[in-house]
Amino acid sequence: MATILRRPHTVARTSRHLLDAASLSQTLARRPASFPRPPFAYACSRSYATPKKSDQKGKPAKGTEHLYGKSSPMSSPQPPSSTTPATPTPDAAPSQPPPTNKLEPGMDKLSQTEEENLDYIIDLVKKGMPKSMAQELDAVASRLKKEGVPTEMHEVMKEVMEKGMSPGRAAKLWRLTGPLARQHVEREKEEQAATPQQKTSSDPGPQQNNIKGEEGPRPQEQEQQGQQQRNSGEEGQQKKKDGQKKKSEDMFANMTEIKFDMSNFLVSAFVAYLLYRLVVPTENSREITWQEFRNTFFDKGLVEKLVVINSNRVRVYLHRESVAAMYPESPAAQAGFFYYFSIGSVEAFERRVDEAQAELGIPSSERIPVSYHSETSWSNTILAFGPTLLFIGAILYLSRRAASGAGGGQGGIFGMGRSRAKKFNHETDIKVKFSDVAGMDEAKMEIMEFVSFLKEPGLYQKLGAKIPRGAILSGPPGTGKTLLAKATAGESGVPFFSVSGSEFVEMFVGVGPSRVRDLFANARKNTPCIIFIDEIDAIGKSRAKQSFGGGNDERESTLNQILTEMDGFNTSEQVVVLAGTNRADVLDKALMRPGRFDRHIAIDRPTMEGRKQIFNVHLKKIVTHEDLDHLKGRLAALTPGFSGADIANCVNEAALIAARTSEESVKVTHFEQAIERVIGGMEKKSLVLSPEEKKTVAYHEAGHAICGWYFQYADPLLKVSIIPRGSGALGYAQYLPGGGADAVLLNMRQMMDRMAMTLGGRVSEELHFDTVTSGASDDFNKVTRMATAMVTKWGMSQKIGYIYYPDSSESQEAALTKPFSEQTGRTIDEEVKRIVNEAYEQCRELLVEKKKEVGLVAEELLAKEVLSRDDMVRLLGPRPWESKGEFDKYFGGGSTSPKQTEEGLGKNPGGIGDNAPSDAGSGSGLPPGLARGPDPEGAPSLYRREQ
Ligand SMILES: Nc1ncnc2c1ncn2[C@@H]1O[C@H](COP(=O)(O)OP(=O)(O)OP(=O)(O)O)[C@@H](O)[C@H]1O
Asked: Which regions span the lipid bilayer (predicted)?
């Protein structure tokens, strides 16, 4: 016992084993609760009881044998041999054994039954334990037997035995175990102090065994033993006294150390037992039927009383002593075991009981008492409290997390207010350098200044120059804004905090500003450093615009906090704030003023040269044996309007396609397939067109192709296909934009040719079929938008003149009221119609003239599904107009004359049926900013800036 007490870890292990033992429910469930039967005489059995037949003893009542298989309600499974109690005899005295020890006042000796129960439980939990621990448990049991238990505890135990466990009784027992445990410890210590010699005796007690068995003696005990051996030898009396003094000090230390653990141990043992009883609830009760109840107990006069519980169950209280005498093997003879049966209604039950008693002729004075109880089961209680407990648990968990994570006032409730910014360590995480960012030389130049500021701040400060606080990088998605910011951190060798604007926005008020504060506080601790706020428009939208329709206070205060933090920077604090956005136009002006985001760096989609460089960066990462110079030029020419991210995606797609066909290296065809996929979407093999539909698509695409081939300012065709792609695009035609030349302006002729080419599909349908289809709606959309822009924005209509009318996407006023009068509106309509009609006439004229060629191309398309530029040259001869830019260099001949003009044209996948919102719809002739998907034209960039 003492050794358990000295070792908290041993106790912990013991407790764990107890719990383990309790969870062995499968095995244990089959074990009966073999509480010994109370050895009372069965004198209480009623006189009207059915005469006992000796041959019936221990057997089930007639007709009920089958109910329990081999066992009957009367039979009990084999109790554990170690605890099988002696069969009580009717005349056995129920009294306690004569006391051998004098008990302390307030202590009760355990009765024989209780001692046997204790032995049984100890046996139960000892299963699977190391021997040493089992011995410890035995020691606990023997002490309990020897010294008894407090009277109060004893009474509660009796109640539990009789009435079962209840939360109130459990709490009482819990409360009483603590003092008992302490008392045991003190006794143990006293005994050890009184008989020191016993420790060194040749017959070690269980405690000593435990020490050796587990871990060997502790240094203190080794010392004690050594000292005692010396004492028994020639050492003097003084040494002996010293040794004893030291030992008692040690004991005292141990005693104070283990008090808590001992009570823990007892409590755990108790809880383990409770758990066991919870897990194996059937051990104490068993359901029977009314017939079994009647035949086995009622008719034999064994029933003491009946308790109706919750109006649906009846608990049967038996005369245990009589049951034990009649059925010695039955669990019903054990204290605390009850049979119960279910009833439909209380009235029916009462009637049945009355009838049964009347049948047996029981006089009314001796009728079996029936009482009524309502009980809440433990499981119900747990279920009822479950949600509340879960809730409290969740709150505790969250608040602990907040307390541990916040590390101070910044955390706010549950750490909500802490910044979500990811910190990249400059030494390990940021490997990006400016050399990884291809193209955008001007942007790099501008941002380079921040690098030199972070590297050599003195250079600027000594001249009195104020260091710029930050820069906004704006541009379409995927153009490398984040990459550039990372490269800036990589080059300057400082930590980099990256956060998205949307991460400041939360449903709780005050979280946004709190996160901003936290972010900047973190940054200040790590100076010099760079903060990058991506998608800053999520919080930095113009406050004036937000207020329209209610506004958003939370977002506004987050923005205000950013402004304040940026103002609050000390000029010598080397924190640079970079922000990325796709919509610089919607940002609040206050963000852009000097002293905050001083610089505005626009990053546009890459030019031909930029694309070449980006391809160069990404091609290095994959295996290809192509001539890199030629390849990157060709691919750059094929991908006008692609952003850096599109290019990275294309290269990766190409590698995937090559891998799918188990190629050794990635070839040009793989890249071209990848580009087609990025532009037009996946081929839709599942979409099977009828022959008529296919013919219509072929003539539609042929119409576009012929226009592109013969109009001087239209885009030269590169490829045309009638394999459906993406969502809704039935045909697909790829045009080459001015040989890759990055044109920045579109003149009126180009626009007219583009519009005429876009209408080529429908005109071809009209010329070759009786009727037309719905597939050209997207073409009309593009043409209309371009014609409208010509009239309302580009001053290309004499009737409207040189006036700019913003559309609804550009200004809120325009969204509410048209910026022109009714009269002007009508004139605009007329002018748009006129321009579209002119384009139509131009197209029709050409296609009537080239009707034969349209037929040729369409038939070839029907046969081959895909036509390349070479096929077109084969069918139609060389294109009558010269190629532009580096077209011939990358795509071979096909044109008749040398370079002539510098124009930017786009691919036009505006095939029939691509009215659906597909990427393939990023068609020709769209005014800047109106195209969807990868912008096909280099040209419109100028217009975008003007808008
Ligand atoms: N100039 C470039 N050079 C090399 N790779 C680039 C370039 N631009 C973009 N990329 C590639 O595109 C990927 C995405 O770029 P990034 O995340 O920087 O775009 P972004 O402009 O920040 O986009 P968003 O506006 O959607 O946040 C990069 O990881 C890189 O692989």
From this structure: none
